[in-house]
Amino acid sequence: MSAPFRLLLLSAPTAQLDEPRLLAELLAQDLGRLHLRKPGWPAAQLEALIQALPPQSYPRVVLHGYPHLVRQYQLGGLHLTASQRAAARRRPALLPGQTLSTSFHSLAEITRARRRYDYVFLSPIFDSLSKAGYASKFDLGELRHFFWTQAARPGYHPPVLALGGVEAQTISLVRQAGFAGAAVLGAVWQSPDPVAAFRALHGS
Fold it and tell me: Domain Thiamine phosphate synthase/TenI spans what residues (predicted)?
């Protein structure tokens, strides 16, 4: 029996109006995990946002960077950026049960590092909604072949989630290609009602 399709959400990269309330509402949905990604934010600013979230949601929050905050607040996991991944000589020290993830931009990268992470993002699968000019170079047929041959083998690791341009009109293609799930960003945060936008995606 195949694992259920995962739907994850990345936070908006910049501060949002009434953001703690919005994130709490989104975490109350059937949201697999929230990736808290705030490029350029210092640790103190991120810590204040974490403290504003419901503590019971912490196991479903994954922080991009700052492993000490991941341990301190017993968050769900740590996500490494490309630069952090390159600088890390060994797996960061995490608590039992906390996951380690990262993002790749080719199937070859996943194959080389497939045993080091608990799950990974592959991007951009479609033209990005949140980054102007960030176009996809993937062929869905090639991805489908990869997932239904190599990644379908028993014990294949890690699960690969699609990122980049995932919206209501494309999420069915992600499922058909064989991805383990999808991570969404622009389709939610470019909407005037992010919670409603996420619900619509979840129902797609």
Answer: 19-188
**How many structural domains does the chain have?**
1
Which candidate, 138, 186, 194, places its Cα nearest to that of 166? 186
The domain that holds 144 is classified in CATH as 3.20.20.70
The strand ranges marked E within 57-180 are 61-64, 77-80, 99-104, 119-122, 160-163
Q: How much is the pTM?
A: 0.93
Percent of the chain residues topping a pLDDT of 90: 73
Domain that includes residue 145, residue range: 6-202
Domain membership flag for residue 1 = no
> Residue 8: in which H helix or E strand, if any?
strand 6-10
